[in-house]
């Protein structure tokens, strides 16, 4: 089974996703492999969503990013 980023679910077997961390993709971590802040990751996911969902508003992409993150192990609230 392919490993996926615990923060954004990006498959970690693709070279462009690999960063210094074993558990997170390079987009979710800083240069040392530390997980970025919730707000930073959320902004990245919102940008990714609006890049392929046509006609999505800024507010909708933020809401969907928030929803998406609630399903991710790195951000799930218990
Ligand atoms: Zn990620």
Could you explain the architecture of this structure?
Helix content is 35%, strand content 0%. With 78 residues, it is mainly alpha-helical. The protein has one domain (15-69). It binds zinc ion. Zinc ion binds at residues 5, 7-8, 10, 24-25, 27-28.
Number of helices: 2
Number of distinct beta strands? 0
Low-confidence stretches: none
The overall pLDDT average reads 94
Order of helices and strands: HH
Q: What structural class results from the helix and strand content?
A: mainly alpha
Shape: globular
Q: Which molecules are bound in this entry?
A: zinc ion
- Kindly estimate the percentage of residues that lie in beta strands according to DSSP: under 5%
Chart the SSEs and their pairings.
Blueprint: H1 38-52, H2 58-69
Helix pairs in contact: 1-2
The structure holds zinc ion.
Short description:
This protein is mostly helical and about 80 residues long.
What characteristics describe this protein?
single chain; 78 residues; mainly alpha; binds zinc ion
